[in-house]
Amino acid sequence: MLFVAVAIGMFMPLVVVAQVTTSSLNGHVADEAGEPLIGAAVVAVHTPSGTQYAAVVNEEGRFVINGMRSGGPYKIEVSYIGMSTIEYTDVVLKLGEPYELNVVMTASNELDAVVVVSESSFNASKTGAGASFSLRTVETTPSIDRSVYDVVKYTPQATLNKNGGISFAGSNNRYNSFQVDGAVANDSFGLSSSGTNGGQTGANPIALDAIEEIQVVVAPFDVRQSGFTGGAINAITKSGTNTVKGSFYSYFNNQDFIGTTAGPLEDGESREKYDTQLAQTYGFTVGAPIIKDKLFIFASAEYYKTTHPNVYSPDNGSYDGILLNEEVILPDGTSLGRYFNSAMAAAMINHYEKNYGISNTGESFSQHQVTDQSINAMARIDWNISDAHKFMFRYQFMDAFADQYDSGAYEYTFNNSSYRQSNRTNTLVAELNSRISDEVSNEFRATAVFVRDKRSVAYGGANIYIQDALTVNLGTDYSSGANAMNSDTYTITDNVSIFKGNHNITVGTYNEIFRFYNVFLQGAYGSYGFNTVNDYFNTDISQYGYRYADPDLTGGDTRWGATTWAAQFGLYAQDEWKPNSNFTFTYGLRVDMPVLLNKPTANPEFNASEIAVNNNQYVGTTPKPNVLFSPRVGFRWYMDKAKKSLLRGGAGLFTGRVPFVWLSNAYNNTGMEAKSVTVNQPDSDFPLTSNPYQDIIESGVASAGGRATINTLSEDFKYPQVFRVNLGYEQEFGQGWKFTFDALYSKTFNNVFFENLALSKTGTVYAVSPSAANESNVAPYYSVDGTYQAVVALKNTNKGYTYSLSGKIEKSFDFGLDIMASYTFGHAYSVNDGTSSVALSNWQYNYSVDTNSPELSHSLFDRPHKVMAAISYTTPMYANGLQTSISLTYNGGSGQRFSYTMDEDADFNGDGRTGNSLLYIPTQAEIGQMSWANPGDAAAFEQYIRNDKYLSSHRGQWSQRYGGIGKFEHHFDLHIAQDFYYDKKHGRKLQFVVDFLNISNLFNREWGLYYNAAWNLQILNVTKLTEDAQGNMTPTYSFQSPQSLSLSDFYSRWRCQLGFRLTF
């Protein structure tokens, strides 16, 4: 009947990601004969705050207390008339994991209580794979960035990617959920590589010192947890207590705390230090009672700033080794030579200011300091209204920016031609936990998160793009003149728990509503392309581009942005049944219904086209509301009376959400509001202007037109879903040793798939030759519709799966030593990993044989092997107030995935894009039948195949997307803390901290190396295609030997940071 109610309740406005923010206590109370002691009183007191929770034992002898503060320590007292009162001390509750307490009471006439000190690590009741990280773990984990990810990467199923994001179970980090106190902290829109709010600036979504505990879940069979198909990170912030406590802290590092050049050196090279740079962090925390045992406050603030020089500049000779295509001669006959130096840079600025309508750009080209900065502050109120009602309110503010300079060894961007990425985030959380009766409790939570991301530029001027031997960028950055995103997220959660006999029933709802406003117009001030520096001075334009919004459709706004309203409605219910003290069975159902609340502007011309009609894809429509069911079951079985052996597991469906930028693409790219102007090789009198709408559009010099890019949403599109199965085994043995094993399997039910509807198959391309053609070495050849550049539809696929096996052993010794080691093996397979925020890029760069029907292959996030180890030791107090802590960690794992592809002077498969076709790996006999542009290419390619492990083992096949894998990497990190106690009774101390990352590189510059593998290695170049009478194509190749791996110079060097913390 409960699930019938769920189905009937679907009309209610409900939603997805109801993650937990509290803990709970449950158990059984009986006498020595095993008879339940009905009416026994259980009182739990959170010792630091005096917060009290109570329950009465029911007719089955069971009790439950929900909505409790995580952490502790707690003192729990169990009493019954005629029985000795039992008191448990030092009980610590884990976030989101019920603590089980089974009590056997004895008859007594004595008044003294029996005191028991909590020890068991098995009391916390999780059913699925995941991990919990206590405050102690957070404080002792080696970290320089002071990111939550530095802690949660020690989850066996987690992989920390080099772009700053974290992947769980082989899934894209965009498919994760990250919540702090139940409020959304992940980047719902999906622009940041880290996947968190503020991630585009490199800022952390919350200060690490404000966090009390972190929970990671990968396969939770609690239906309250949802909104992800990767993993979920739940963090809770610290709260005030009855004691005034706080801290002041600071961290510092500069160029002297970073190693010299890492890796092997070429002849004549020397190991170099970085130029002057500085990173500083300052912060404080404070918690205090406002009214003892009743009302508490906690506040924190953190300021971070880093400065470092931009490395590349014509002022310091960075480009003295690059010979331009021709000698640069100014119109007045002055020669500037063939090297990009200070004189040439100054002349370019002067020419720009005289000709492009911006007389004072403030441009410069000298080496200067680049700055990143963030401020993160929060305040939290906890109010014990009564023993039955607890209220919490939290406000958090973040303001951050990062200066972005895109210069490199072969590309230079002038100083004021770059941009500043800024972020401002405001978060509000309110939560009320109520005990309505001994059988009913309620948890209510409301949150609001407001995110403002923006790119700011020094001036609004035309973009100049010069593609000489050195690429040079001048003027406003091409993608930053009109680039902003506003995100508003509102959530309401309500969970009702009903405790009846051996059943703990939960019925709940989570309502989530989003509003996104996205401005993204490339070339918003116009963009002039030139083939050489000479062409720039002589105004010989190769191409002009300008993108704007049609003011007739946007109310006069030429910098219009699309607004997207979305919601996700859902309802869930579950029953946790405990037939005896050794076995728990959980079963539940979650029902979600995503909805887009507004529609894109319709495009009548496109909607009448054959592409639209034949594919049932229309601009202006959105997916129909569809109901997504997520049934789940889970169990926990203690296999022995001593509860040392635990078998746990479950199975179920998990519904996530897509990055909303993928949906927003269909609102921005309708072919209506946003207009594009493209003029190839314009006449010599073409206007040079930074006000293109007035000087080009309104003046009639050029008009919008050409082939537009259209994005559509399939009518039956569904949010991501995976079916996930987990089986885990935990064993305590010896003197406190613990072994954990987890097997995890996920099968894709719904995932994203991007298809370009502007393509049609017209023939075949022979990878070898027509005479050697067989089903293994041919691929489809396409033609592109002449009306549109691309028509990218967002669809679903059910192809894909992941699996992993992990084992971990750990022990905490009484004398302060903790050790842990784990190994994880697994694979992940997909057809599209959604690595870009742009629909066109997600289709274009999804390397494949058949571009519109990509093959199931390795995921970019597939890392087969992961090894972790950690050892930490804290000394006893010595020398009347000194204490030392040392933590050494090891992370080893498979390298980055990459694909073997081809460079394409000629478009290999006719899809209108180059560089995205997978390489065919010919047999030795087939190489001789291929057409080669240069003598010796065939022999060189043959030798390359023989020397490459992957290619040599896959001959006669197409290479797989992300079939290649980088070198296994080994990284050691070290944390040392020295405490000086000035008030031992209250734990007040001065602490000095040193953190080393990649410390092995300190002892040997060729140890601890980080490798960057390009996403694709282009082995061959398709120089031309020869067409036969049937429209089939035969390619001619040239061989080009790529570099498969390159060192990440910064991360391969050892790094160190010093810090201090004064606690009071």
TrEMBL record:
One of its GO terms (molecular function) is siderophore uptake transmembrane transporter activity. Keywords: Cell outer membrane, Membrane, Receptor, Signal, Transmembrane, Transmembrane beta strand, Transport. Residues 236-1003 form the TonB-dependent transporter Oar-like beta-barrel domain. It is found in: Cell outer membrane. Its main location: membrane. Residues 1-18 form the signal peptide. Coiled coil: none annotated. This is TonB-dependent receptor. It comes from Candidatus Cryptobacteroides merdavium.
